[in-house]
Amino acid sequence: MSDKPEKFIDENGLRLDGRRVNEIRPMKMEIGVLSRADGSCYLEWGKNKVLAAVYGPRELHPRRLQKADSALIRYRYNMAAFSVEDRIRPGPSRRSIEISKVSREAFEPVVLTHLYPGAVIDVFAEVLQADAGTRTAAINAASMALADAGIPMKGLVSACAVGKVDGQLVLDLNKPEDNYGNADIPMAMTADGEITLLQMDGDVTQEEFRQAVELCKEGCRQILEMQKETLKNKFTKLEEVEISDDEEDVDVSALVESTLESLEEDETSENDEDIEEEIETDDVEDAESGDEAESVEEQEDSFQDVDEDDIPEDNDEDVPEDDEETA
Ligand code: CDP
Question: For the CA atoms of the chain, what is the radius of gyration?
């Protein structure tokens, strides 16, 4: 029995999940969620849940795979076995290999790979829960993870799909629209609207295709804003930490000053005591040895008087002690 809905868009222009045709599903993302990865992002988009992790740039092994003039990007899209209703067989499938390939190609024009010859940048996109549009969700998460890892890029990549249901173009397909719609066109693009991924399943006219690109640009623009906001939040937080550190510095320096002052006072009184102690000790020593205490100048003079020829050249250990030499 098919679960195909009779209508995807009601008379008020609302879709099955209450969205308008040009609205994307609610999205939230967080970066830096994995401590072992160089960059990471957890993204929820509708009921999709995706985790992306980036490792590198790091030296690529085996070396025969290295590119002499640039870094290699490896992208692995994977659906967790529990991510859909029917268990997914673990390991690569035709579908996941294809998605990994086109997603890697979506990043190759923006990542400045020429800066890291011989290196590899590994991108892992794990779909934890799937509900249509997982490849685009994974690309959005991967883009953030790359930025989080500090990988130099021309800009962020944002991705979204446009489809056709009830003869109308709709932005960001939900599961029934994806499964039973007339077309599914996932796209990824840069902030400038340069398309880095374009796939199409189904039929659209040339005019519809043109409109689909425009509609997708609008979706990607909204996603880009969220991506930028997420990155900005992270760096604003870092700045706040720095500011509060500065504030602590002010306190610390005041503390240091007052400590120094009190130390100076202590030192003055301690010095007095030391001097008294020294005088007493010197008196006792002089009295015992019968030697006259040399002034500091006298000691320095006698040190300078040492003839360099008297010092053996090669063996430092043979250098006589000052006392012996000057005695
Ligand atoms: O997820 P995306 O739209 O990028 O790829 P798709 O191949 O068009 O798959 C659409 C949806 O079908 C996925 O998001 C999953 O929810 C579902 N699916 C599934 O249930 N089992 C699979 N083996 C593959 C996909």
Answer: 36
For the segment(s) 27-242, the CATH number from 1.10.357.10, 1.10.580.10, 3.40.50.10490, 3.30.230.70 is: 3.30.230.70
C-beta of residue 235 within 8 angstroms of C-beta of residue 31: no
- Count of C-beta atoms within a 10 Å radius of residue 120: 20
CB within 8 A of 92, min separation 6: which ones? 78, 100
Q: 78-92, 143-157, 202-216, 307-321 — which is least confidently predicted?
A: 307-321
Contact 126, 137 (CB under 8 A): no
**Bridge partners, 119 (sequence order):** 59
Nearest CA to ligand 1 atom 9: 132
Q: What does DSSP assign to residue 309?
A: G
131 Cα nearest atom in ligand 1: 16
Q: What is the pLDDT of residues 203-241, one digit of tens each?
A: 999 999 999 999 999 999 999 999 999 999 987 776 666
Residues 6+ apart with CB under 8 A from 36: none
In the chain, domain spans: 27-242
**Residues 8 and 174: beta-carbon distance below 8 Å:** no
- Phi and psi at residue 257, to the nearest 5°: -60, -50
| pTM (predicted TM-score) | 0.76
Cα(212)–Cα(62) distance, integer angstroms: 43
CA angle centred on 223, ends 221 and 225, rounded to 5°:
70
Q: How far is the CA of 88 from the centre of ligand 1 (A)?
A: 11
Ligand 1, pocket-test mutation among 178, 179, 197, 199, most atoms within 8 A of CB: 178
